[in-house]
Amino acid sequence: MSFTTLGLIEPLIRAVSELGYLEPSPIQLQAIPAILSGRDLLASAQTGTGKTASFVLPILQRTSEKPRAKTNRARVLVITPTRELAAQVHESIVQYGRHLNLRSAVVFGGVKINPQMMRLRAGVEILVATPGRLLDLHQQGAVHFDEIDTLVLDEADRMLDMGFIHDIKRIIKLLPNKRQNLLFSATFSEEIRTLVKGILNQPMEIDVAPRNTTVVGITQTIHPVDKARKPALLSHLIHKNKWGQTLVFSRTKHGANRLVKQLAEDHIHAAAIHGNKSQSQRTKALADFKSGEVHILVATDIAARGIDIDQLPCVVNFDLPQVPEDYVHRIGRTGRAGSLGLAVSLVSADEVGQLHAIEKLIKRKLERIEIEDFEPQHNLPAAAPSSNDNRRSNSFKNKANVFAKKTTRKTFGSRTDRAKS
Predict the structure, then answer these.
(1) Does residue 138 sit in the same domain as residue 285?
(2) Phi, psi (deg, nearest 5) at residue 24
(3) What confidence tens digit (pLDDT) does each residue in 305-352 have?
């Protein structure tokens, strides 16, 4: 089936063809006709499934048929959790809408607000925004919501994780009651279901991203190693295997910075991307990685959420994630569109709890391969923990969750901090 069968207009078909896309993905097959019909939509889809085009294409078509937005107004509002994702969604709008006479803008924190205010002065048909900066602009009268007829919440689960729920509710109260609502999330958690009740009106549901499955085309490998030797092992693997473009996940911002310095000592040019970096630094790091100028990009989970790179050959878990579902999100960035991918995890003995939680989620035992000269002194247990170990692990997880909630409130509790996310 081709894009021409989905009811899209000729300028969009031409743009899609020019960008080299021949057949719609599963989510596009279902979502585009539903959105064109005006229905509300609840879709479970991860980055890399063609999710962005599934809402950008029909939104461009519906918006092209309506009057232009007035001064300091927009017709479509797309809200994303991170600056990187906002920029990439806006880039897709520009690319797919190249043959349409529509105005669009993207606004987020971490950069000066005045140029964004000037961009909105004449009005735009489509506005992409992060929650904190959007509310700032609204409070300063730079954008009014009375003409919004379409709302998109992209990666809604991550917005909840990042503490944006109150901002989202405030924004929704300011929007017209009559509008089309599209919500995309990697999972249909209870929190998402609760959020949906107050936003969507008899939505169509699409689920193309089961949360506890991993892509068949991804080779998943565990390298047991002592924690202190992880940087040296990563350098060894990069040199020995001649890895090119590789996305490396670090649990913390400081850990990401430290790893970049350690890799530099081994003559490996890497860049870090996380919330403490300025927007210009994050944009440059991502652009250099996409262009191939930088082969190794070290990222935290939140910062990497919006990174969408075609045919990324390798993902490395330098630290295992605390939440097992995040493992699926991480490695799902490789092995896309039928290509093969490699997911390597460097696992130390203190991460055995996370490892077993991941294996339980994906319903498979991951292969352990020790690397010569890097064999760990503290071995990884091959079997799952005993019931007593589980109780201790659960106790630790509960404490970690409490700490994470406190940290989330501290980190995202102020408007300034939220705008920087």
Answers:
(1) no
(2) -70, 150
(3) 656 666 688 999 999 988 887 888 788 777 665 567 899 999 999 999
Q: Which residue has the tokens 């071995």?
A: 379
The answer to whether the CB of 69 falls within 8 A of the CB of 101 is no
Alpha-helix residue ranges (DSSP H) falling in 332-386: 352-362
Taking the C-alpha atoms of residue 52 and residue 28, their distance in angstroms, rounded to an integer, is 9
Beta strand extents in 212-333 (DSSP E only): 218-224, 246-249, 270-273, 296-299, 314-317
Distance CA 35, CA 204 (A): 9
CATH code, domain carrying 93? 3.40.50.300
Q: What is d(CA 376, CA 394) in angstroms, rounded to the nearest whole number?
A: 26
384 within some domain: no
| Domain range enclosing 54 | 3-207
Residue 225 in 3-state DSSP? coil
> Which residues, in sequence order, are CB contacts of 72 under 8 Å at separation 6+?
120, 121, 123, 141, 142, 143, 144
Residue 192: both structure tokens together:
């998402």
Contacts of 414 (CB under 8 A, 6+ apart): none
pLDDT in tens, 84-128: 889 989 999 999 999 999 999 999 998 999 999 999 999 999 999
Q: Indicate the SS3 state at residue 66.
A: coil
Do 197 and 223 share a domain, yes or no?
no
Domain identity same for 25 and 160: yes
The pTM assigned to this predicted structure is: 0.64
Output the six-digit token pair for 315. 């993902």
Length of the chain: 421
| CA angle (303, 305, 311) in 5-degree steps | 115
Separation CA 224–CA 232 (nearest Å): 13
Q: How many domains does the structure of the chain reveal?
A: 2
Rounded CA-CA distance 90/85 in Å is 8
Judgement on whether residues 57 and 151 belong to the same structural domain of the protein: yes
- Between the two ends of the chain, the Cα-to-Cα distance in Å is 39
- DSSP character at residue 334: B
Q: What are the Cα distances from residue 381, in Å, to 86, 272, 296, 378?
A: 42, 32, 30, 9
Tokens linked to 176: 């017209």
